[in-house]
Amino acid sequence: MSFMLKRIYDGFLYKPDKLQVHPLVGIVIISIQFGFLILNKNWVLALLLIFIIFENVIFKNIRGSLSILWALLPIIIFLGGLTYLFGGWEITYRVLMRLLVGGLGFSFFFSIVNPSDLTRSFEKLKIPTKIALIPSLALMMIPRIAKDAEDTFTTLKIRGEIKGFFLRWLPRVFAVFIASIIYRSEFLAQSLYFKGLGIQKRTHYRKISFRWVDLFRLFIWSSFIVCFILFDRYDLFYFFV
Predict the structure, then answer these.
(1) Which of 33, 26, 72 has its CA nearest to residue 50?
(2) Where are the domains of the chain?
(3) Residue in 67, 76, 119 with CA at minimum distance from that of residue 96
(4) pTM above 0.70?
């Protein structure tokens, strides 16, 4: 459990030292990815995964991708065996591919998008601040909650309180974990207050602008859409439907 939580934290952590992208470009691209996930075509899922892996390699998010893959490994094994047992290999393939695309896509999005920039981009689109803060809070809190859960589990394990049947120690871990979330929420509320949440007109110390990397990402996913149209029109993967 501690191993999975550590990997989730590493995979979903925002990395300010990496090349950053415009938040709205990130939103558009991840919407494209999850829009194509609903298609029940095996070759589309494979093509989507190839493009996501390519993007992770180009932008050097290899460590985050591997962390998410390790975290998903127990789920992949469990779901893979369960879906193969009841649905066969094709259903198993589609379930696991969607899991991999979602995990790698979100890992890349979390690592390159600044949560504060995401909020400001939504505010420029005239979205109320209280609503614009929701996705940025998710970007900030999910890795930290995973880190709190890992620390809670590790501390109780060192103290010898995690042993025997899991129903004996799971409520204790859950209670300590909830207490840490409540404790962290107090600091989050203070942070939002000092950032001017609720003020009609807020100011920002720097501007968010489009850069070459945003155009490059848009080019990559425009190429994906072109490939999809060509492959679908000429049935180039008719044997892999």
Answers:
(1) 33
(2) 1-113+210-241, 116-204
(3) 76
(4) yes
Distances (CA, A) of 107 to 67, 111, 112, 119: 9, 6, 9, 19
pLDDT tens by residue, the chain, 241 residues: 555 666 666 666 777 666 677 888 888 888 898 888 888 788 888 889 999 999 888 888 787 788 888 878 888 888 888 888 887 888 888 888 888 888 888 888 888 887 777 777 777 777 777 777 777 777 677 777 767 777 777 777 777 766 766 666 667 767 766 776 776 676 666 666 666 665 556 666 566 777 888 888 899 999 999 888 888 776 655 544 4
Residues in the chain: 241
Q: Pick from 2, 103, 121, 127: which is nearest to 49 by CA?
A: 103
Say how far apart CA 210 and CA 193 lie, in whole Å. 29
Structure tokens at 64: 């985050």
Please state, in angstroms and rounded to a whole number, the distance separating the CA atoms of residues 31 and 36: 9
